[in-house]
Each structure stands twice: as C-alpha cells, then as structure tokens.
Amino acid sequence: MFFERPGGGERAILVHLDGQDPEAREDPQEFQELARSAGAETVAFVSVPRHQFTAKYLIGSGKVSELHDRVRAEQVELVIFNHTLTPSQERNLERAFECRVLDRTGLILDIFAQRARTHEGKLQVELAQLEHMSTRLVRGWTHLERQKGGIGLRGPGETQLETDRRLLRVRIRQIRQRLDKVRSQREQARRGRTRANIPTVSLVGYTNAGKSTLFNALTTSDVYAADQLFATLDPTLRRLELDDLGPVVLADTVGFIRHLPHKLVEAFRATLEESSNSDLLLHVIDAHEPERDAQIEQVIAVLDEIGARELPMLEVYNKLDLLEGIEPQIQRDAEGKPQRVWVSARDGLGLELVKQAIAELLGDDLFVGTLCLPQKLARLRAQFFELGAVQSEGHDEQGGSLLAVRLPRAELNRLVSRAGMQPVEFIEQHTLQ
C-alpha cells in the first residue's frame, strides 16, 4: 500500500447515516449484508441521524468522539460507513479513530476482490481499486512530501507521491490495454455466434436475486451460488437447447446493487457488454424481497447506463418457494407475449415455463423450415451456407436443394430481396410444409 495507515482487520463498527434524502438513502439491512459478505465481524451497528453533512468528518464532531471511545473500548480494527467518503474525510476519520476507515465503495471493492476468480475478473477489480486509490494518494506519504537535499538523500527529481502517481497511471494504462483486448475477443466471439445464428440470453438482476441458482438449474452447471451479495463476479456462458428453437447461449453476469459505484461500472464494462449485446434479457427478481420495487428501479438504471435499457426483457420472479398461494405461471401482456414468469430456481419449479417463454420471445422473429431451391438459385444457396444458417441439406428428384434452415426472418427477407424476389411469395413457393 502507498499509505502509512493502520492495518485492516475484521472486527468492525458499522455506521449508517439516517435522515437523508430518500434518493440518496442506503438500505441498512443491505449494508449489514455487504459487511457480512466481506467477512466482517460486526461489533456494533450505529445509526447516525444526519440532515446536513460536515466537510471534515461527514458526521458531527460529538459523534466522532463517541465512536472513538467505542472503538477503543471494543478493540475495533475497522469502521465502515454506509456512505461515500471523500479522501480527506476518510483520512480525518482514520486519524480520529486511530483505526482503518472504509466507505461503501471501498467495501464493495473489497468484496469484488475476494470473489474474482478468473484473470479477467482480477484485472477488472484491480483497475477499479487503483482508480479508487488514486484519489486517496494526496498526502498519503507524510514523511516524503518534500524532496530532501544532502549527500545520500538526493532523489531522482520527483517526490515519492509523484512517483506513486506515475506508477499508478502506468499500471492503469496497462490494465486498460489488456481489458481492451478482452473486449475485442468477446466481440469476436459474439460475431461468431451471430454468424451461426445462435441467440444470446443474459441473466441480469439485483445481487442475491438467485441468478446463478437459476443458471445452474437451466443448464445443469455448477457455477458458484450462495446466499450472499456478489457471489458471482466472473461471467459464465453455457449452451442451452430449447424445443422448437434450437441452441441459445445463456450468460450469467455480475449482480447490480443500489448506487453501484461508477468505477465498477467502468471497470466491468467488458463484462457488462455481454448483457448489452444480448438478444434477450432475463431480469431475475427476488419475489420475496420487501424492497423489490426499489431493486427493480436500480437494475433498470444500470441497464440504462450500459446501453441495454431498450433490449427485449423477460421478468423472472424467483424464490416462489418463500411465498404462499402463488403457483409457477407465465403472465402475458395485451398482445399475448410472455412478460413475466414465476419460478423457484432452488426447488426447480417453473423451469420449463422459463424455457417456453424464452422460445416464444426469440422464436417470433426466427424462420425455421425447409426450403426447396432449384439449381438456378445456387447463389442464394451459397449465401445460406455462408451465414451458417443451414442445418442439413438434401436433394429432390429434379436435383434441387432441400435446405433445412434456421435464421432470423429479417435476414431471410434481405437475402431473398437481393435475389430479386418478393419474400412472401418466395417463402410460400419454396417452403416445404
């Protein structure tokens, strides 16, 4: 670390600021869940009624003195605030408490650092941590603030603080370059799936809504799933076969949370792009959560930030086993399209309904059938093969090609129109029923 700071620990006091603007107010229960997920041993939960913040400590000096006494009495090693602290507030509080101080962003970053398992995930977490740390380097090295003169004390011409900033900038640039490479690799993989006409379905939702449990139940996978916040950090892709539709790629992604730090959204853009480039989003919702409406709004806000707000979406209300009087079902809109599905991923209830709803939503714009193409349409036949839309080929008695094709209807119409024919007439004339 670049700071002369007290070492971190697990015995913690949680400080929640109450009486704020409802838009900025954090959920105290969610705050305690975050601390538990990070591995903190909560010694005390302190709710501070504040309507106006102070520039020095965020909270009043009287409450700072009270917390200092409590830190000494309880031998606490860490004080966590359920609010964003400025770098100067964080340093002032550490000096006053004589222990480590962490804000909400730092807590979430710590959880992400514990959960990252893949090389890409670790890079993304490191990038977010370094960018967060770069704002806290000011006066971090109090004993090396000034260049020293004299024999044996002359430096290379820059203070330690300047050196640290330069090293941070270099490392951040290196990580960004690696993540750009990851982004291009993901984009290449997506183009390959597009050429093969394999739709992508992404699971999105609030953290701990049950996305990984649903993912495992649908794909018979063993992705890590637990009753804790941010259990899943690294994206996972699996193939899922659906009746009357064929294969789709199902993607499990990182969960969202209220006031998700912007640094994390930026750092995980390569991962979140998996959602923004999907053909369908499965918005997994904890049906048993009292604050579910607020959580839905937060998910929509993050989807808007990553450019995925307008994508087709199916709501999946999970944890049906915790509710009474509601059976697994598909609810439809005025046009008869699936709008939401009620399931229990843990007990395996309603999984077939989820698959049915996905197939209905993706199958609307998909043409699946056998085309009988005479020899004069050999060029059109070649174009179907180039797109990877041909699943099998046979021949009729006249030497024509019998192509079992599967591709988006818009793509079929485009190819047929370029061949100089009317799409509707062509399909009626050349499709084998």
TrEMBL record:
Q: Which positions are annotated as binding GTP?
A: 205-212, 230-234, 252-255, 318-321, 344-346
Q: Which residues bind Mg(2+)?
A: S212, T232
Q: Does the keyword Metal-binding apply?
A: yes
Report keywords, A-Z.
Answer: Coiled coil, Cytoplasm, GTP-binding, Magnesium, Metal-binding, Nucleotide-binding
Q: Name one GO molecular function term.
A: GTPase activity
Intracellular or extracellular location(s): Cytoplasm
Q: Where is the Hflx-type G domain?
A: 199-366
Question: What stretches pass through the bilayer?
Answer: none
Which stretches are annotated as coiled coil? 165-192
Q: Does the keyword Transmembrane helix apply?
A: no
Alphabetized Pfam families for the sequence:
GTP-bdg_M, GTP-bdg_N, MMR_HSR1
InterPro entries linked to this entry: EFG_III/V, G_HFLX_dom, GTP-bd, GTP-bd_M, GTPase_HflX, GTPase_HflX_N, GTPase_HflX_N_sf, P-loop_NTPase
Q: Which SUPFAM superfamilies match?
A: EF-G C-terminal domain-like, P-loop containing nucleoside triphosphate hydrolases
**Cellular component annotations (GO), alphabetically ordered:** cytoplasm
Name the needed cofactors.
Answer: Mg(2+)
Report the family membership.
Answer: Belongs to the TRAFAC class OBG-HflX-like GTPase superfamily. HflX GTPase family.
- Subunit structure comment from the entry: Monomer. Associates with the 50S ribosomal subunit.
| Biological role | GTPase that associates with the 50S ribosomal subunit and may have a role during protein synthesis or ribosome biogenesis.
Which HAMAP family does the record match to this protein? GTPase_HflX
Q: What is this protein called?
A: GTPase HflX
